[in-house]
Design goal:
Length: 300
Amino acid sequence: MSTPGIEGRLFGAAMLMLPGEFRSEYGEEIRVLARDTVREAQSQGAGSARSARRRIVVDLLLAAMREHARKESVMHFNLAGLGAGIATAIGLPMVIASYSSYGFWGLVRQTGAVVGFDSSDVVVHPTIVLVGAVLTAIGLLALVHRLATASPAASSTLRIAAVVGSAMVGLGGAAMFAYALPTVSEWRGAFDLVGGLLLGPGFLVILAVLIAAGVIALRTRALGVLSFAPLAVAGSLVLLMVVALLGFATGMPMEAFVRGPAMVVSVWLVPATSVLLGAALALTPIPSGARVRRSEPRPA
């Protein structure tokens, strides 16, 4: 568009605001269309030409905003994403709280009183851990599925790790079923050992998946504005482990330690950050560029 003066500079600035790859592909076509539009308007007078140039600049600015918005992950609800989000918000917090929160068990007792089951039954805790582990696996697999830019090898590795880590936690919890089986009472010590050996490494594997997926999500904005959520969950788990280790190192009585403010805050940061991650999955971000329409903007 041969537009000397301020209108030409505005046109150039508006063109520069378009995403680089969009400008490379469609820039020449936009210039030709703008030039033809101005020439046609010039035949109707200088005022029409100025009006056409202004409309072109405005249309380009609107196109730039639209294309930049499309480069970000577009968020929208669907049932699969909502299910994965709920699983993520519930699964890992359920497992963590079952081992470290009196408040959680108070909620379990209240639920048992309403529904009609005995919350002190020895099968309740391992059942909670098993259900939480399954939900955690669903959430982690959904998270990995969102990482569209990850290499196939990285995605496969993260999926396997998510399943293995969740299975280890679930099996560690299942070892507690031995307390409900009097015929294997002499093996309870062995079951406790197996459970402990599975739970610790299982949590570490889950933590590793969250960190690796979180780095990819943050770098590629795979979860849109909530791309930080996996690392937030990982951070809350690290904080919980640090607080727990410090508590054990000080030799504080277990009940006093678990009820202490540091432990309470660190425990409940896990569900808080898990809800953020669940919301990110429930909104089902579409990988950048998946919905970019391959059509020219109409500057006039």
